Amino acid sequence: MTAKPIPVPNADTKPFWDACNEERLIVQSCRSCGHVQFYPRVLCVKCEGRDLDWADAEPVGEVHSFTIVHRAPTPAFKETAPYVLALIDLNGGFRMMMNIVDCKPEEVAIDMPVRIIFEERGGQRLPQATPV
Ligand SMILES: [Zn+2]
Questions:
Q1: Is the confidence at residue 1, as pLDDT, over 70?
Q2: Which 3 state secondary structure label does DSSP give 64?
Q3: What separation in Å is there between the alpha carbon of 76 and the centre of ligand 1?
């Protein structure tokens, strides 16, 4: 079986991935204007400020949109298909793309409440959503 891809942290994303390994969800926040943003960047997308910080994010949200993947994009995902790829609106005011796991794809619905869990993948944990 081919292994699923593992996230490769860079200087901007390393704090996020390190927190995932501790099973904590954090989000970048701007000290100048208070904007929170995902994914992590070098500057604030709202005010272009560079005074960015990290804040703990509540690991709960709801489904904004989703699709059911029936045909695996690579051999690594063949055993997982069909699976759900979703946009999750986190309670902290930002949006992330992830899988919804531990439920049947046909049970997923728009606005469905979810919580974040962390999937171990080759030494790196990554956030996934599961129904509340
Ligand atoms: Zn800002």
A1: no
A2: strand
A3: 39
